[in-house]
Amino acid sequence: MFSCPIQVRMSDLDPFNHVNNGAQCHYFDMGRSRFFEYAFQTEIDWLSFKYVLVHVELDFKAPIRFHDDLACESEVTEVGNSSFKMVQRLVDHRTGEVKTICHCAVVYFDRDANKSERIPDTDREMLEGLKGQ
């Protein structure tokens, strides 16, 4: 499973001193971005990158606080014809507590034609190889 550290910032906190739910979406975006760079072994050019987030579902398990040692864990769970699914977790590495779980779907997308396309075989093989890791 791929993991990257997440920095909690003061501006991410809500009036209850918890990380705001909206800020957690940004954490998952960062984790997914770092995962893509790891998976494709390159810095991503977001203006030409052909994968687009099309579904996201969050389960908030426990509050995230400023001093949590937070990381975003990401893994591929399923690869389809034009999309793949991921599960991501925000975890306090000091305690092992899972704070939030994200289920998402990502589509291979032709921006010019404005429609999804079949995932290229080389990408499919790479994504299949990352399943469950």
Structure write-up:
The termini are close together. Helix content is 23%, strand content 37%. It is of the alpha+beta class. Strands 1, 2, 3, 4, 5 and 6 form a 6-stranded antiparallel sheet that branches. The chain has a single domain, classed as Hotdog Thioesterase (Thiol Ester Dehydrase, Chain A), CATH 3.10.129.10. The protein has helices spanning 21-40, 121-130, and strands at residues 2-5, 51-60, 70-79, 83-92, 98-110, 115-116. It is elongated, with a radius of gyration of 16 Å. The protein has 2 helices and 6 strands; from the N terminus they run βαβββββα. The longest helix has 20 residues, at 21-40.
In terms of topology, how is this protein built?
Blueprint: E1 2-5, H1 21-40, E2 51-60, E3 70-79, E4 83-92, E5 98-110, E6 115-116, H2 121-130
Antiparallel strand pairs: 1-3, 2-5, 3-4, 4-5, 5-6
Distance between the termini: 4 Å
Per CATH, what is the topology? Thiol Ester Dehydrase, Chain A
Tell me the number of strands: 6
Number of helices: 2
Return Rg in Å.
16 Å
In percent terms, what proportion of residues is strand? 35-45%
> Any low-confidence stretches, pLDDT <50, length ≥5?
none
